[in-house]
Design brief:
This protein is 44% helix and 15% strand. By secondary structure, the chain is α/β, with parallel strands linked by helices. The strands form three sheets. The protein has an eight-stranded mixed beta sheet, sandwiched between helices. Strands 13-12-11-14-15-16 form a six-stranded parallel beta sheet. Strands 5-6 form a two-stranded antiparallel ribbon. Helix 10 crosses helix 11 and helix 10 packs parallel to helix 13. The radius of gyration is 24 Å and the shape is elongated.
Length: 447
């Protein structure tokens, strides 16, 4: 039977066996989603501790509903986890690559991806389909993956099907977004497109089908756009500070035009995608135009250094900074998650510690300390602080009572609200000084 027909039959009958290489923030929720859809799924990871934990139903990835879903899939026998990739790949109809593809010094580090390809090579066989969910530089599917399979004697889109199906989920909403986000399917040829689309239709509400290169470009294009937009918001914040305006009000008013949608400024950009994906795109952008992306990256990195400068000046007040105490509320890169990947809070904690400030962090979601003191409660963090910095806009921090904060902190305490979640007027009415990115810096509050 032709490969395409056989795989389509195995999808519709749910007899297809799937293997996922990499059981992290992307691979594990994806493996769970396909297991729940009725497929026989094997998850492979090189981290034996992670595999042992998952097998016991204790994932170290904090995702609402994930632990329970993993346990249900394991109990039902629809999910197996292992460190050994050979046998699962040999027995699978579909293998999906979900390994990290970080960027080091602006250059993609594809070592994990190549290791995963080596593993695929060991167990590859005619009649299977290879799917790539890792974020990869444009043209990797046709320029790197396909030639490696061809070198083994296979005809791509005939003997072996191949597609790039980028992941777009947001940590903390992985299971929900896995189903609700539009899934882009970038098949290397018509058969690959059709089979991958049918497979993802079993778990995603909407699929968009295209070729592999367009899918690769669309993935890095969407995240680069968001990075550029945030850089523009940060640029406006710096401008508002120079002129003494409130950037939030400027952006709110600009966004009342239905064709404008400017993001919010902040402490910088974190996470696994936004600080990385622009570098995957930039390699292919004509040199004359690449400054746009490079400048945006620079602004989003430098805003974090700018915040540190503001904090140092705000805490100095002519009496020096040595021994002064700051409470940093939030260490994760985005609200209401445990994910600390590339969190700007890390840079702030480390820079202030180096400057001789006593830094105490508090985050109800993450045990991360960045090598400093960690408070076990909000009150413990606030006690005796000369400065309180909101680094992550966790929902719980929105209800901090300004009078209570004033009561616990030292006289003259400055509140620096990175994500601008507190009410400036209420903070000031309680006798505290309020500063934010793009707010209050020029009003004589910082010398
Ligand atoms: N985290 C996100 O929010 C997100 C969103 C969209 C896309 N992505 C992309 O998805 C990919 C995976 O990211 P992640 O966040 O899941 O990473 P992660 O670090 O959370 O997990 C990756 C897992 O892969 C394992 N691994 C590494 N090499 C392996 C190999 N050769 N074989 C088997 N397992 C291996 C690691 O041990 C780890 O458990 C990356 O390319 C990332 O850019 C991530």
């Amino acid at each position: 039977m032709p490969v395409e027909s056989r795989l389509l039959e195995r999808i519709s009958s749910r007899r297809a066996a799937l293997t996922f290489l990499g059981l992290g923030h992307v691979g594990l929720p994806t493996a769970v989603a396909f297991s729940r859809a009725g497929f026989q799924v094997t998850g492979v990871d090189t981290d034996s501790q992670r595999v042992r934990n998952i097998a016991l139903g204790k994932c170290d990835i904090r995702e609402p509903g994930l632990d329970e879903a993993v346990v249900a899939c394991l109990d039902r026998g629809g999910l197996h986890v292992t460190c050994d990739s050979y046998e699962p790949i040999r027995m699978s109809d579909f293998v999906s690559i979900c390994v990290p593809t970080p960027v080091e010094m602006g250059k993609p580090d594809m070592r994990n991806f190549h290791a995963a390809l080596d593993a695929v090579k060991e167990g590859v066989h005619r009649g299977m389909m290879i799917l790539i969910e890792s974020t990869i530089p444009p043209s990797t599917t046709s320029g790197t993956v396909a030639p490696r399979l061809r070198s083994l004697g296979y005809t791509i889109d005939e003997d072996i099907l191949l597609a790039y199906c980028p992941e777009r989920l947001m940590p903390s909403r992985a299971l929900e977004e896995f189903a609700s986000n539009t899934r882009i399917i970038g098949g290397i040829g018509p058969k690959s497109r059709r089979v991958a689309a049918e497979l993802y239709k079993t778990v995603s509400r909407c699929v968009e089908v295209t070729d592999a290169l367009t899918a690769e470009l669309s993935k890095v294009a969407e995240n680069t756009f968001r990075d550029l937009n945030i850089a523009y918001a940060n640029l406006l914040a710096l401008t508002a500070e120079n002129l003494g305006a409130d950037v939030n009000e400027v952006i709110r008013l600009a966004n009342t035009h239905h064709r404008v949608s400017i993001h919010k400024p902040g402490l910088g950009v974190g996470g696994s995608c936004l600080p990385k994906d622009p570098y995957l795109l930039i390699q292919h952008v004509p040199k004359s135009a690449s400054d746009l992306i490079r400048s945006a990256r620079k602004i989003n990195d430098e805003i974090t250094r700018h915040v540190v400068d503001i904090l140092l000046k705000a805490m100095d007040k002519g009496t020096g900074i040595k021994g002064k105490r700051i409470a940093i509320l939030g260490v994760t890169y985005k609200p209401d998650t445990e994910d600390v990947m590339n969190s700007p809070a890390r840079y702030v904690v480390e820079a202030l510690t180096r400057a001789g400030i006593c830094v105490c962090v508090y985050d109800p979601y993450s045990p991360e300390t960045y090598g400093t003191e960690r408070a076990s409660s909000l009150d413990e963090a606030l006690e005796g602080a000369d400065c309180v910095m909101i680094a992550t806009g966790h929902t719980v921090f929105k209800s901090i009572d300004p009078d209570h904060m004033r009561h616990l902190t030292r006289s003259g305490c400055v509140v620096f609200d990175g994500p601008r979640i507190l009410d400036a007027a209420r903070i000031e009415a309680a006798g505290l000084t309020y500063l934010g990115v793009g707010y209050g810096i020029q009003k004589g509050r910082v010398s």
